[in-house]
Amino acid sequence: MLAAFVWVLAPQAIGALGRWAGMVLHYPLTGFLIFLVIANLVYLPPHLGFGDGFWFMPGHFPLPLQASRVLLYPAFFAGGVAIGAAGLRTGPFAADGALVRRWWIWFGLSYGCYGAILLLAYAHHNWIADFDSPPLWWRAAYGVAVASFCAAMAFGVPTFFQRWAKAPLTLMDRLQPSAYGIYLLHFLPLSPVPTLDCFVGCFASPLRSQ
């Protein structure tokens, strides 16, 4: 909604954001490092403050929000807006661009970060005495690993698909027209318990009044 209001009230702001993204990502490694820093800045403070087990669920709100990612989601969405404004075919994510040609680097970094997440999870289960209250160094290291994994995958997934966009994949081609709808709605079926609770609560409220 905020992006829509910005588009209506100041469309030139989104264009400026796209030009900035195009300029920064003209140097892929520099652009990635900037995005990596942003991802850590927006994820670490809520992660350390709330932890990953706390969710915002006011009333019967249909989409519970993980508190540690409350800033990560809008930051990544803004990054997507910037990339889109820069142009998907001629901008930084152009199929023949330097960013896409290095798709394997972003995937390598993401798997390295995922390996760090697994190592820290193993340490949490086997080397940390107080399982329910891990030390600050562990929580900070885990937060950095998760934020860095998200940043690397944000580069790795689109560049991978751009690189192999012309490969004959019938199933993926059929999904393409619905891709944005899947992105918008995937959270509902992936959160069956909170969604079911909300669904039942919506019907239970009128029944209580009767």
Query: Helical percent range?
Result: over 70%
Strand content: under 5%
Straight-line N-to-C gap: 36 Å
Counted by DSSP, the helix tally is 11
Main beta sheet strand tally, sense and closure:
2 strands, antiparallel
Class based on secondary structure composition and strand pairing: mainly alpha
Gross morphology is globular
Following the backbone from N to C, one meets helices and strands in this order, namely: HHHEEHHHHHHHH
Poorly predicted runs are: 193-210
> What's the number of extended β-strand segments?
2
Widest sheet: strand ordering: 1-2
* Gyration radius over CA: 20 Å
Overall pLDDT score: 83
Describe this structure in words.
By secondary structure, this protein is an all-alpha fold. The protein has eleven helices and two strands. Strands 1-2 form a two-stranded antiparallel ribbon. A hairpin with an 8-residue loop joins strand 1 (55-56) and strand 2 (65-66). The longest helix is centred in the C-terminal third of the chain and has 28 residues, at 136-163. It is globular, with a radius of gyration of 20 Å. Residues 193-210 have low confidence and may be disordered.
